[in-house]
Amino acid sequence: MKPFEDLKVPSFTVEHQGTTFTYASPKLGEASFDFLAQTIRGKDPNTCRIVLICQQNSEAEHLKSELAGRDVNTILLEADDPMAHQVLHLWSKGYIHQALILCDTMLNFLEGFEVNFVIHTTLPPLKKFEERLEWFSKSEMKAEMLVITAQSEENKISGNNAQAEMGETPKNDVNGIPKQEGKSVPDLQLPPQNKSFSDIKPVVKMDPKYLQNLGEKEIEIFKSSKDGKAQMEAFAKSVFYPSGPISGIKDLNSPVALERIPKSLDDIQLNDNKNQSSSKVDDFMEKFLKLGYVESQNTETPKFDQEPNSFKVDENMSIMLPRCSPSKGESPPQYSPAEDLSVLSTKYPTEASEVELQSLLMACRLQSAPQDLEPVPPPPIAPIGESPSLELLPDLCGIDDTNSLDSYQTVEDSPVDPSEGALTAGGTTAYNYGVLAWSRHLVAPCYDLGGLSGISNTTRNAIHQLGVDKSRAKAVQRFAWPHVSSGKPVIVVGNLQTGKTWCYLPTFCQRSHKELQRRPVDGHGPTSIFVCSNQSQGNQTGRWIDSLLRSLDNEVALEGVVTCWDKDNVADIACRLSQPVGILLTSVHMLLQLLSHHSKKSPIFDVRAVKFIALDNLNDMVRLLPDVTMKVLKRLPEMFDFAQNKCQLFVSGRNWLNDLMVRRILPLMPDVLILFDDALEASIYGGVELDTRIVPEEQKIKHLVAVIRDTNRTDERTVVVCSTASEVLHIRHKLGKMGMDVQICISEANYAQVNQWRRKSPACLLLVTDDVVSKLRCGSITLLIHYSWDTSWMRFKNRFSLFYGNYMAIPQRERGQSVVFARETDVDSIWLISNFLLEHGLPRPTRLLDIVAQHRLAEPLNTAMLKLCRQLTAYGDCLRYTCRYRHLLWRPEVLPPDHYPTEGEIRFTVLGCNSPANISVRLSDQFPTMAHYLKAPMTNLGQQVQRHYELEENRRRHPNPVPGERAVVKNLNRYERVVIVDVDNSKVSVQLLDTSIEILIYNASQVYICEKMFKDRPREAMEVRITGLEPGTLDRIWPEDARNVVRNQFFSRTQNRRSRKFFAVVQATIHETIFVRNVYDSEGNDLRTFVTNRFRVYQEKRCLDKLIRMVQSSVPKPCPISH
């Protein structure tokens, strides 16, 4: 789209009966839509209600599509829309800020609604124009009018010639008037008694900011005219019936085709048994293996292979908590989790724009449509110049937070370092019932709800009926209930099924109900907000809340609970929140949608009325929707007051995400109580240094002695934990031979010796077993050595409770260090500790992950019938905890198809974004776009398939679908070629061949035979993957919102370039995947930098070497064994 200042639009302004009319004549084609988009953006959506009026439905739909391509969200209202009245009501109240597009048949709906700005996209006949003015004259507010008129014949001809020179077809636009074939256009004779225009007088005034210059011809008309009537006659002749050719608008009234979200390729594995000659495979492998040598010898980086700025971690760093090292001469930073909260407040708020509600309208139309209607004939295939290319539909329209979209760490969020005494500074620490608790107030646990004054008897009975607190409260609940009932916030970190949600749910429900009874009826918004990670968890929580609220008496007729899980229901929820309600139960994604609708003039939330906000299972929110979660956490302190006795925050989760908690959560909780039911998670907060070393079994004693001798036994105490008592006795025997004194504790009988060991200086080595750890009190320790893994991950994590004495010391003298002796055969345990480190943003344990990958490749599995692992083909290795797929390539799975590029630069059109590092493309030189059908670019083959299978007599159902065979299915109202992947009873899994690499599931009756003339044509959609760019988790699954950010902000048509072209340089091609270093658009922006600057990712520099080794290890496919 051209810059706004380059849009030169002839225009002039007149006044009539207090209404201002501006007549503008932008050029035909793209300029007219650019002008409209600029005009709408020039208005404040919070104060200006805009209506665009079209003459035909097809014109309105085309206008909406063009404005959407220019980042202008609009809502199209139709006469048969059952939601029209409700949408208009919300629009008039300010809950919806988008401009409305409607036709003349919808004008009666606007009666009684205030409109500030009206745009007539085309100039209708005089009678119809007078009817429009009559409708708007009934409103008390005089709306400003903008009328779009056609330019003179000279400009039209010159504009069309310019397009013809570029090889493009002149496009329909908002200036076009429906063509009247076979009829001449008569001259307009204005009767002298025409009252509609008799008193219109031109005035001299400053043009609005969206109009640049007046046309010379219009100025000459006014200069030569002698009176107002002559002026209007001349003007009416020129604008109502312009001379020269009149462009027509084609019927673009077609159903909206929504693009499916591609399924994860990890879920459905591909199995291509295509037979290739062995000589062809050997030739390809010989060529491919040269790639590694060329890459290693190439020391000069080309301009498009430059290393982008990203978050890098030195692989040689020790595995420990990230620290902010002070400069010389400075003292280490002192920080307490509840001190100076203002310093950690948000400095750069993120603003989210309005949410697109057109999907809501479409869903309601489909639900209310009659079931016995005739099928709508398919729309015609439009020429290439008339319809935009495949749109990457946004999941969160309009939200653009390009300053910082990092999942955990933003520009102002640098890694934090808990200072010495982080847990104990300014507060008290308690350890009982296996729970570590920290608070600034006295920590006094309870046994059940009976002794709490803040919980009523009816609430207690309802809780007991739900099976909670039947005998005694769970460990974390004993600490949380007294604190929460006194009106203070809490953070609970623990394993699954430990009662974290019930730590605050009783007080949350009872106080919310009590506050709702006292709220004024004319208020609005919820009293409390409960945010869940997903709808499944929310449904269970909703049942608990309903049970607790039913036990309480209602004095007011207000809703106790409002749930919101679907973005199609946002408008309805916003309407329900226009009055006071009790609890809003929703997901983090839908809360962001509602927050984006909130404004001062159209409020949804009453800041003073909201008393509690609960973030239940925060770790799942961060894992699944990191970008959305960060935006919500930034918005909360901007909207709500989290001071004492104001809004209180409750947080629960499985992980302690240190940066996120310290930077975003703790500043909102001045009187917080922190509870840890997981000792390993508490070690992250306490700053324990974590180290894992691969030590062979026969060398463990030697390494143990080396570690002990490096410690200062006078000031430092060391504990060695073993899995069995026999192992403890064996170590004591070995160390005794070396003259080293040790103390053992293998049962309760040894606790007295441990007490003596605590007072002994210098202290000897303490050897203990897992059986005594839970009750062992050994005070502050410096070093914890895990001599062997425990058989249970839970018991291994419980070993870190030995550091609780460090946290309770005043002041805290030791942060502690943990050293794990692991063997290469402890693959499952290595995976668990590696996953823990990555979940908490600690340095990547490359050595440990290499062991996991090597173990996957060496697993002795019956691989003949297994499908190929997609992690292996994408990254060269597999890091899953368990994997049931094959990790060995057959030779035919190495060779790419003949038409796939294997080197050099490629240019392509992006068909779909499967993940931030994986896209579906179509090469521009091999498969040029010939037309657009339902907003999707079509090649010559696509047109032929569509025209052939549109005829019912050409569609023949496939009698016996077989994997590997090509077929035809109907996808998004388009007939497309597919390859059959799998057949399971009556369900057939297919992969698209020409428009995506997506895998879909159909009934067998929906699969058609692919004609011979289409079967042998090569596939057009290809998979392009950025080499070595992967998410920072071991499952290697990208979060959905990360994909949406890349899809909407990098691949979107923000500059209105249809069929945008991208280019890349091929590094390698393995089977049907093209590996590239980076992807660039026509302006030089690259995808790798875009992703690494916004999300936590890992860039594996050895990925290409791993892929080469994968190809080298491929073997001929074994012959099936017949029985």
Can you walk through the features of this model?
The structure is a single chain. Strands 10-11-18-12-17-16-13-15-14 form a nine-stranded mixed β-sheet, with helices on both faces. Strands 4-5-3-6-7-2-1-8 form an eight-stranded mixed β-sheet. The chain has a six-stranded parallel β-sheet with strand order 19-24-23-20-22-21, sandwiched between helices. With 1123 residues, the protein is an alpha/beta fold. Helix 8 (278-297) runs antiparallel to helix 32, helix 16 crosses helix 17 and helix 25 (827-839) packs across helix 26. It contains 32 helices and 39 strands. The two termini are 67 Å apart.
Brief synopsis:
The protein is 29% helix and 17% strand.
Write out the strand line-up for the largest beta sheet, numbering strands in chain order: 10-11-18-12-17-16-13-15-14
Structurally, how many domains make up the residues? 5
Specify the CATH class of the largest domain.
Alpha Beta
> How confident is the prediction overall: mean pLDDT?
77
Determine the CATH superfamily of the largest domain.
P-loop containing nucleotide triphosphate hydrolases
CATH architecture of the largest domain: 3-Layer(aba) Sandwich
The coarse silhouette is globular
CATH topology term of the largest domain: Rossmann fold
C-alpha end-to-end distance: 67 Å
- Coarse structural class: alpha/beta
Total DSSP E strands: 39
Proportion in β-strands: 15-25%
Summed up, the helix count is: 32
Largest sheet descriptor: 9 strands, mixed
Give me the Rg, rounded: 35 Å
Spans where pLDDT lies below 50 across 5 or more residues? 1-6, 152-277, 296-424
Question: Percent of residues in helical segments?
Answer: 25-40%
